[in-house]
Amino acid sequence: MGLFDGKVAIVTGAGRGIGREEALLLAKEGASVVVNDLGGARTGEGSDVGPAQQVVDEIVAAGGQAVANTNDCSSWSGAEEMVNQAIETFGSLDVLVNNAGILRDKMSFNMTEEEWDSVIKVHLKGHFAPARFAAAYWRQKGKDTGESVNAKIVNTASESGLYANAGQANYAAAKAGIASMTIVLARELERFGVRVNCIAPVALTRLTEDLMGQGNEEMAAKLAPANIAAGVCWLASDLSEGVNGQVLKIQGGLAQIVQGWRPITQITSDEAWTIEAIDAGRDTLFSKSDPGIPPFFLNINDPTA
Ligand SMILES: NC(=O)c1ccc[n+]([C@@H]2O[C@H](COP(=O)([O-])OP(=O)(O)OC[C@H]3O[C@@H](n4cnc5c(N)ncnc54)[C@H](O)[C@@H]3O)[C@@H](O)[C@H]2O)c1
């Protein structure tokens, strides 16, 4: 008995890295999987059916069920087609894992319009478009059956977005947007029986090998993408019942729930604010934090530092 017996899942960007492990684990646990991957370069250029087909072949060789999809998940029509492919091939859709991503890092003062647009598109629209068509399908299914659909979306954020990494204005803005969008979708879709959560992974893949050190076997084992797949499959399963709108960070042997913006101090006024009145409240406003730039937590050696 697998956790996902009889379930149908889509994983975007499942031809390599973290998405590949997610697709393999979902299939091992019984899901029929649509393996989506455009097959492009780390920076998003080009396309190749190879990576998606290889993962499908691996799943089928292990006795599972899978089909390849090479659409750009950030294309509106491509996302619709992908959702329809799951329903037409396997009869339904129960799990959507939005994972596909690219990087085009630059400091803000050097970033081109193309670098900005492409990263925002692949991540932000590439998460929203599949979610939008999956949500429409689940809403209709709920109406048709009169029952809760029991479906899940797992999105993919990043510490870069949660904690704001210099050199990644495009990527961090998209990933912070994805973390917030997760909560929006969780609020909107709860009524149909859909839970929406988010993973913030740290893993050694082609996206991070220059940051984390290629060829370091100890690091590679510690930061294996399979760790991330375990967290994603937990969020995508019924085991995580009651968990909605959350961000789960996994880095090696560490798993954390990360929560975001909230008021930490306040001052109030019965009259219209003036510059002087705000300034008079400065000490209270910063009584629980430093007024400088908040720390960036991506520390591979000591993630809790
Ligand atoms: N590796 C990490 O430590 C880390 C950290 C934080 C966030 N992430 C996020 O995790 C996700 C997976 O990253 P990874 O490290 O496995 O990278 P990866 O490059 O190994 O895999 C990403 C896959 O997405 C595919 N892809 C890219 N654009 C696509 C598109 N438009 N449509 C369909 N497929 C597309 C690529 O072809 C690639 O196979 C990304 O969203 C990334 O931003 C990774």
Give a nutshell description of this structure:
With 305 residues, this protein is α/β, with parallel strands linked by helices. It has helices at 17-28, 50-61, 76-90, 113-145, 159-164, 169-189, 209-212, 217-222, 226-236, 275-280, 282-285; strands at residues 8-11, 32-36, 65-69, 95-97, 151-156, 194-202, 247-251, 254-258.
Task: Report on this structure.
This protein is α/β, with parallel strands linked by helices and 305 residues long. The chain has a single domain (8-258), classed as 3-Layer(aba) Sandwich (Rossmann fold), CATH 3.40.50. The protein is built from eleven helices and eight strands. The protein has helices at residues 17-28, 50-61, 76-90, 113-145, 159-164, 169-189, 209-212, 217-222, 226-236, 275-280, 282-285; strands spanning 8-11, 32-36, 65-69, 95-97, 151-156, 194-202, 247-251, 254-258. The chain has an eight-stranded mixed β-sheet, sandwiched between helices. Strand 7 and strand 8 form a beta hairpin. Helix 1 (17-28) packs across helix 9 (226-236), helix 3 (76-90) packs parallel to helix 4 (113-145) and helix 4 packs parallel to helix 6 (169-189). The radius of gyration is 20 Å and the shape is globular. The two termini are 40 Å apart. The site of nicotinamide-adenine-dinucleotide has 33 residues, from helix 1, helix 4 and strand 6.
